[in-house]
Amino acid sequence: MTTPQPVGVAEVQGIAADEDVIRVRQLVRSVAVAAKLSLVDQTKLVTAASELARNTLTHGGGGRVEVETVTDGRRTGIRVSFLDSGPGIANLELALTDGYGTGVGLGLGLSGARRLVDEFEIETKAGRGTRVTAIKWAR
Amino acid sequence: MDAATTARFGALLRGHHDGLLKDWTARVMGGLHGLSEAELGRQVEELYAALLTAVDEGGTLDVGGPASAELRAVLAELSRQRAQQGFTSTETVTSVYALKEAVTEVLDTNDAQQLRDFVAYSALIDQLGLFTVEVYARAREELISDQAEQLLELSTPVVKLWDGVVAVPLIGTLDSARAQVVMERLLQTLVDTGSPYAIIDITGVPAVDTQVAQHILRTVVAARLMGADCVISGIRPQIAQTIVMLGIEFGDIVTKASLADALLHTLRAGGYEVVRRPPRDA
Amino acid sequence: MQRVPVLRLGDVLLVSIQVDLADELAPWLQEDLADEIVATGARAVLIDISALEVVDSFTGRTLSTIAAVSRVLDAETVVVGMRPAVAITLVELGLTLHGVRTALTVELGLAVLHGGPTASLAAPAADDLRASP
Fold first, then answer.
1. How confident is the model at residue C22 (pLDDT cuts 50, 70, 90)?
2. How close is the nearest chain C Cα to the Cα of B10, in Å?
3. Phi-psi category of residue B227: left, alpha or beta, with phi > 0 → left and psi -120 to 50 → alpha
4. What are the residues whose beta carbons fall under 8 Å from the beta carbon of B76, sequence distance 6 or more?
């Protein structure tokens, strides 16, 4: 499978407060609409982005998201990358388990977001911040 | 094409305007069947005019540039029409290339400059041809996907059985992609009709495997989240056996063999009583 | 801070959540509703989410909390107008909206609250008559 190549320029949104989560949703929605994702796929992606944005805010101490349209030669997709320089996730496997820390911890947020997108990657190290990348392809 | 060549092209197009137009139109008509002469003539004239406009802008002419905007627009419209009318891409592009043939007729092949110029004109017309093909391809794709959508709509009819009760007979195989669309359509119907009850009839589904069952289950869960509920009907004996064998659990989702039973169940849940009136005396 | 208007329909409170206001308003909404329930003696809260294009786990928890708080105050909560795309996403997300009843529309929600039949088909009918002998 070819590495997804960006199409155009990435749009960046800082995540420092509650209102930014809304901005992230609006940004992702508009890029998804432009890439002609179906309504349900748009909703899934925006919801996943909302989860990840909130995580970045509450657990990462704030950060930013980079949203870009990508292509693998055949299809168009949207890639969202959430970055923070927070404490990182100490036990990634545990964090990705359904229901972990429901309501308080990362729980549903990460594992749920993963289910909503097609590709999902996390780079994290305790004390060194986190980078979560997700891609949703247009069908 | 450099500015000087563009200027000469402009002069050529103007100088032989009527002749070229007539020749081009004739060649186009020869290649396309079923279109009226008048209509075709008008289209070629429009194209010719747009080409002249682009050429008159002067400078280095290229198909992607701002000077060629009108030209692209006219070509795109033409190309889309041909796609919708069912012509092949060859038939469509040949109309554009026909201009080359028309131009060769008015060239003095002994004049080296004119021959050099022709190479440039030819390259430009090739570009126009490529552009035409691209638009054509996109238009055909859109057409095909529209038709596929219509087909899908036809195969997922929604029937209002009663106030608040809709029946969705599923017909045909349910692959992942189709199941997703059917699911969305069913849920949207619940919203559009304000019906809290849906009867999903699977009489027309030839086989049910784990994937299909999961799609149906997910649909019911989604309907419940929205404040509606579903009954599954039309379960044939073989399907019932397959379901048990595969260990598919429908949980508390009601399943009925016949649509009639499903309707009765739904009516009762909705607070209705179905009563047979005593026969009247003769 | 912008507050969400709470309408009164008899002994039912109606709240209409508009797009993208949900986030910041969550704590205020919970408080305002609790206050209103007590002040008016309302026995039900209808939350209209038909304008919401996205319901994430945070919003879901907010709705569940509102339902829980209302229940403690002896009022029922019904969430209406969930969009199909949202429902499909919630199923995939694995969010169940625990403790929250739902209805397709405000009318249906009110009907359910006033003792009408619920949409659930799972409750077994009294005697399961076959349609044809």
1. low
2. 55
3. left
4. B131, B135
Instruction: Inform me whether the pLDDT recorded for C20 exceeds 70.
Output: no
Beta bridge partners of B204: B171
Report the side by side order of strands in the sheet with A76-84. Answer: A5-15, A63-71, A76-84, A130-137, A119-124
Interchain CB distance below 8 Å, C94 and A115: yes
Q: Which fold has domain B159-269?
A: Transcription Regulator spoIIAA (3.30.750)
Task: Please report which confidence band the pLDDT of residue B130 belongs to, taking 50, 70 and 90 as the band edges.
Answer: very high
pLDDT at B204: 86
Residue type, C19: V
Question: Chain B contact for A139, CB < 8 A?
Answer: yes
Q: In the structure encoding, which two tokens stand for residue A110, read together?
A: 């990460």
CA distances from B155 to A42, B79, B159, B171, B188 (A): 25, 31, 12, 6, 16
What token pair was written down for B237? 């004996």
User: How many CB atoms neighbour CB B120 within 10 A?
Assistant: 17
How many CB pairs lie under 8 A apart between chains A and B?
4
CATH hierarchy code of domain A5-137 = 3.30.565.10
Q: Does the beta carbon of B182 lie under 8 angstroms from any beta carbon of chain C?
A: no
Q: How far is C20 from chain B (nearest CA, A)?
A: 20
Contact A112 C23 (CB under 8 A): no
Give Cα B183 to chain centroid, integer Å. Answer: 21
The third-level CATH classification (topology) of the domain covering B3-148 is Globin-like (1.10.490)
Give the minimum alpha-carbon distance from A39 to chain B in angstroms, rounded to a whole number: 10
A15-72 confidence digits (pLDDT tens): 999 889 999 999 999 999 999 999 999 999 999 999 999 999 988 889 999 999 999 8
Spell out the alpha helix ranges (H) of C5-105. 22-40, 57-72, 84-93
User: For residue B114, with 0-12 CB atoms within 10 Å meaning exposed, 13-18 middle and 19 or more buried, which class applies?
Assistant: middle
Owning domain of residue C99: 6-111
Say yes or no: C38 contacts chain A, CB-CB below 8 A. Answer: no
